Amino acid sequence: MNIHEYQGKAVLKEFGLPVSRGKAIFSADEAEAAAQELGGPLWVVKSQIHAGGRGKGKFKEAAAGEKGGVRLAKSIDEVKEFARQMLGNTLVTVQTGEAGKQVNRLYIEDGSDIDTELYLSMLVDRATGQVAFVVSTEGGMDIEQVAHDTPEKILTFSVDPATGVMPHHGRTVAKALGLKGALAKEAEDLVTKLYTAFIAKDMEMLEINPLIITKDQHLKCLDAKISFDGNALYRHPEIQELRDITEEDEKEIEASKYDLAYIALDGTIGCMVNGAGLAMATLDIIKLYGEEPANFLDVGGGASEEKVTAAFKIITADPNVKGILVNIFGGIMKCDVIARGVIAAVKAVGLQVPLVVRLEGTNVEEGKQIIRDSGLNVIPADDLDDAAQKIVNAVRGGK
């Protein structure tokens, strides 16, 4: 689960980390009071969306101006004007795609006197099962570009969970960032507190870009992008309350109600599969035959008829779907349950696109018979390769 910058900074502040004062607003009418409360003389007006590249982004609407999604204001009148221009308008960044995202909230923050911009992030290293730090002197830039052009400017290391963060980890960061004296001491303290927050809140990723050195030579977290492990949210009701569903795909929100693993993609072939590995193989073989999957959808090993019906409805709700592939290998999941779920969903929402069904495993003959007896116009498939070729052919009009 992702949260907004201002929410992330509030979490960091709980752990004693240095962040600027700021106030979130949800309407242009709140801008003046927020600016007066902070006092100035400089304010930063930041669009709050779940995407990076806000500063370099552009609004679709001309009325929003040409200054991007992060703007420096030198007066309260400018804060008010920027708020009026930005709220309710659509911001397009390198991470949003052409559709962009509507700005529904802003973060008005004290301006900072920046001497140097640095980069620091933390993430779970799946290969080692440890928390990894990534640091660079190239703050304020896209870290992917830095990795491509000047990889020698990036340092990565992991923290052994058996020991947790140690003083030498902080010294490693300080050395990599060229920090000495009091700043090196601040870096050690910063690393310890960040690791503590990361573990305590079950974070998946924490990125501070930029981490700055101020003119008076102190470290400050000028940005905060945080995502949390969805499987651990039951331990953190205070984090769950921060969820902004307006930033999420409606189909993914609906899928979460039924505990379905669903991710919307950009293709035209909807997929319903059981098991993450089989789902990935299904996406791959669709691409192999020249088409693109419209989603990743794993109904799980013990899905009920209701769950399968919900999954099918979610797939058909996507207007980009031109065909559907149901690929089930029944172990715990029974093929007859899948068959009944598909039929129930088709009857509820109708079937306007080609449907290919490949069933194998537990109760497979019962499942196939249920589909045959349904009278639906379903294309049967013998195996995954056969299924992929048939749905691709059907989407292309049988050519």
UniProtKB/TrEMBL annotation:
Report keywords, A-Z. ATP-binding, Ligase, Magnesium, Metal-binding, Nucleotide-binding, Tricarboxylic acid cycle
Note whether DNA-binding occurs among the keywords: no
Q: Which cofactor does it need?
A: Mg(2+)
Q: Spell out where the chain crosses the membrane.
A: none
Amino-acid positions noted as binding ATP in the UniProt annotation, renumbered to this chain: K46, G53, R54, G55, E109, S112, E117
Write down the InterPro entries for this protein, in alphabetical order: ATP-grasp, ATP-grasp_succ-CoA_synth-type, ATP_grasp_subdomain_1, Succ-CoA_synthase_bsu_CS, SUCC_ACL_C, Succ_CoA_ligase-like_bsu, Succinyl-CoA_synth-like
Reaction catalyzed: succinate + ATP + CoA = succinyl-CoA + ADP + phosphate; (S)-malate + ATP + CoA = (S)-malyl-CoA + ADP + phosphate; GTP + succinate + CoA = succinyl-CoA + GDP + phosphate
Q: In which pathway does it act?
A: Carbohydrate metabolism; tricarboxylic acid cycle; succinate from succinyl-CoA (ligase route): step 1/1; One-carbon metabolism; formaldehyde assimilation via serine pathway
Is Magnesium there in the keyword field?
Answer: yes
Q: How are cofactors bound according to the entry's free-text note?
A: Binds 1 Mg(2+) ion per subunit.
Its Enzyme Commission number?
A: 6.2.1.5
Top-rank taxon, per record? Bacteria
PROSITE patterns tied to this protein: ATP_GRASP, SUCCINYL_COA_LIG_3
Assigned protein family: Belongs to the succinate/malate CoA ligase beta subunit family.
Protein name according to UniProt: Succinate--CoA ligase [ADP-forming] subunit beta
**Organismal lineage:** Bacteria, Pseudomonadati, Pseudomonadota, Alphaproteobacteria, Hyphomicrobiales
